[in-house]
Hints:
alpha/beta
Amino acid sequence: MLRHLLSAGDLSRDDALLVLDTAEQMALVADRPIKKLPTLRGKTVVNLFFEDSTRTRTSFEVAAKRLSADVINFSAKGSSVSKGESLKDTALTLEAMGADGIVVRHAASGAPHRLSAWVRGSVINAGDGTHEHPTQALLDAFTMRQRLGRLDGLQVAIVGDVLHSRVARSNVLLLATLGASVTLVAPPTLLPVGVEAWPAEVSYDLDAVLPKCDVVMMLRVQRERMNDAFFPTVREYSRRYGLDADRMAVMPEHAVVMHPGPMVRGMEIASEVADSLRSTIVDQVANGVSVRMAVLYLLLGGPRPVDPPSGLEVAA
């Protein structure tokens, strides 16, 4: 593995598969009466979150604790950041405290890359602006492989607010590396400039794409990042790009529905779809812990890519 995990595009196919295979072993820990491994005992992991988060921050905390690391949760609210301290000075403070790994979420695209130049420990990008969210892409790929048995050759549709979605960008990069075909489905106003250079197809018609999909990943419309009107009304958006029971019925029988969360029920996804047997949304949350355990293990205490992912006998 690389020293940092900043972008899904930095992962080679072998790197990505190593994370997924290691996550399978880590998942065994969840079935044990005592959900602990001694792998990162003595290591310190800092969760450095400048934006609100529930699933990502909590799962990184659980993952680090299950590996016996010491965890420091740092929130910008109530810290020196609220007094005007810069990201660099915050990083240098954490460096002086001996942080071995820093999990960072920041509103500015590229912030984790800057941070990685200022610290000696490993930096993991937990979401930077509208840029990337690589561990979300890894847990999504893990969930697809778990439910469908493969990644190579899958047809994946990513639907909704692609413009503001770091999840979409990371998934496109990672899934292309792993051999899946991705189609981005959104109104033209919610597609980023330069999307034609992404390793993905683009469609404006959800109904035309659904019958040939193995995976349909719905995205939340991120209205908190919008300063303009990107579509006429919520009702119109839902009519054109929302996934309801009728649309789910035209998907292949084996196809699954995904969502990175948080969901807006009744807008991009109907409750009967979110709660259906085809939905992997709860699985994605559970798999997030296993995948983030694998990432922390490989970056902070695990073998290099030339070695097999050994040393996990405790989890067997």
